[in-house]
Amino acid sequence: MVEKNKCCGKTVEKQATIEKPYHFVDSGLPNVYLVGIKYWTCKECGKQSAEIPALKDLLTKIARVVTQKEDLLTGQEIRFLRKRLGKKSADFARIIGVVPEQVSRWENDPSTSREKSADKLIRVFYSHLSGDSELKKHIDRHIEEFLSTIPGEEHTDRYRVKHKNATWTAEPIPA
User: Fold this and answer.
1) Parallel/antiparallel/unpaired status of strands 48-51 and 33-34
2) Burial of 155 (0-12, 13-18, 19+ CB in 10 A)
3) d(Cα 92, Cα 87) in Å, to the nearest integer?
4) Which structural domains are found in the chain, ordered by start?
5) With 0-12 CB in 10 A as exposed, 13-18 as middle and 19+ as buried, what is 17?
6) CB distance 10 to 44 below 8 Å
7) Is the N or the C terminus of the chain less surrounded, counting Cβ atoms within 10 Å?
8) Percent of the chain, pLDDT > 70?
């Protein structure tokens, strides 16, 4: 993707380096910096534009590192993952099991606390629906460990498993 600045026409081409990375604000996250790309800065107004190759792959890799981080997701990260899935806030809320206002609070109010179980569910949900097979494999390998601290609503002592018409069905029997 190439978007050279047209604002003043006096741009300077630069190369993003480790020492001077390009701040990728268009990712929707405040803390993403790119290295190894060309970008242009207007000498007069300071506006920047960049040549970002393989944008889809870039966003996939950003989402992967976000879902695998150790601390709780920020509101901006939740919004980023939701948008990567192409889900409206209300649809995302329904799938996660909260009201749409809760998703809005998570995404927009940094002081809103998130429960670990909701955080994990968002990560698993994203990992399975994103189409990122590497991320899905990673989550699947660690799913038991990943979900082990989520409290259950009911305790199940037994399971009813039926065989009918050459098919098995199973259901929990609450204690």
Assistant:
1) unpaired
2) exposed
3) 6
4) 11-53 (no CATH), 69-147 (1.10.260.40)
5) exposed
6) yes
7) C
8) 80
